[in-house]
Amino acid sequence: MTVTLDQPLPLPCGATLKNRLGKSAMSETLGTPGNRVTPRLVRLYREWARGGTGLLVTGNVMVDRRAIGEPCNVVLENNRDKRLLERWALAGREQNTHIWMQLNHPGKQAPKALNRGAVAPSAVPFSDPKLGRFFHLPRALTQPEIADIVRRFGESAALARDAGFTGVQIHGAHGYLVSQFLSPLSNQREDEYGGNAENRRRFVLEVYDAIRARVGDDFPVSIKLNSADFQQGGFEEGESLQVVEALARQGMDLIEISGGTYESPRMAGQGVKESTRRREAYFLDYAEQVRQRVTVPLMVTGGFRTLEGMNSALADGATDMVGLARPLVVEPDLSRRLLDGRARDCRVKPIRTGVRMVDEAAMMEVSWYTLQLGRIARGKAPLPDAGGLSSLLKVAGVVGWRRLRMGRLRA
Ligand SMILES: Cc1cc2nc3c(=O)[nH]c(=O)nc-3n(C[C@H](O)[C@H](O)[C@H](O)COP(=O)(O)O)c2cc1C
Questions:
Q1: Contacts for 350-356 with beta carbons within 8 Å, 24 or more apart?
Q2: Mean pLDDT across the chain, nearest whole number?
């Protein structure tokens, strides 16, 4: 039977997603400067839930306030914002939608402007010194510190469940801490967390176990994982497939496939080959390899833009869910219109200022999408045709140039 976008997807834990469209995580930067939940988040997720998408994954929520990835994102360590958290979850559950909280620790991708220092598996700086200027040289984590971070993932997941979120996702992609542990470039440890592939994946498996122990067997636990880091000597497909197999054995409910890091942003399509672009989504070839090995539900994210591309990826069996990020900023109700046949493609287009140096910098797109997210959160419609330069200047006015310069495109 051909799989179509409107079909429900049952997960190993017993929960069911109402259709095959998932909103991938996007850092909203809509919390307070002290990283607390705000009514703006509630409004944004209500809008998305009403837009027909079956699964909403939140932007990354930090598990430790001493390690922050970007300004004004939520930190979840305790119950201080319980009532607003509950409202956030309730809004995301409208119309039987699932809302999963993405949990993250940035590791060395913790900007200097927001953090006193940074920790990582090993004291390895960014290989690009221009990028490295915005980040501390990380200090290697001790084993008790690793155990503390593992515990924190479990604690934040339990708090999310208590507040009414219907699942959680580990951010295991894009060069953050989990992905740093997996990478032979960033992880040069000689203890049981490094040195070979099995040791490098110990951290992510411990994080999964800690979460599962706190949320129980009937609660969706997912991971966003890189197919590869696309860096010489980094995490590559062969090792990623082994991680997928190990996570599937442990009972993971859904694996979202992405790829790249700050230094090699493939998740945004940068550096993607023309032959890959013809298939629309960037990581489908890798997903097909995963499919041959495991039956765990998959969501492929990055590049989906047309109904035809989405249907063919589902029909080929390369993915079970279609992950969308930028299209759902430009059109928060795109899923509904794809499902009822009113839309066949989406209105995402490259964001340009016309100034080459600016256009090549990752901050360009992030400021544009950040502004649009803010508009939806204030009850206004996004402006798909808004210019790049004016958005950049507006964001600079609000957050200041210093923060903007270290702003990153993908969390
Ligand atoms: C503004 C913005 C913020 C993002 N924040 C996150 C994030 O918090 N966590 C994450 O896993 N990916 C994040 N991403 C990456 C997206 O989830 C997605 O992988 C990427 O945009 C490719 O999908 P798309 O082509 O459908 O946009 C972000 C992307 C954008 C544009």
A1: 351/388, 351/391, 352/388, 353/387, 353/388, 353/389, 353/392, 354/388, 354/389, 355/389
A2: 92
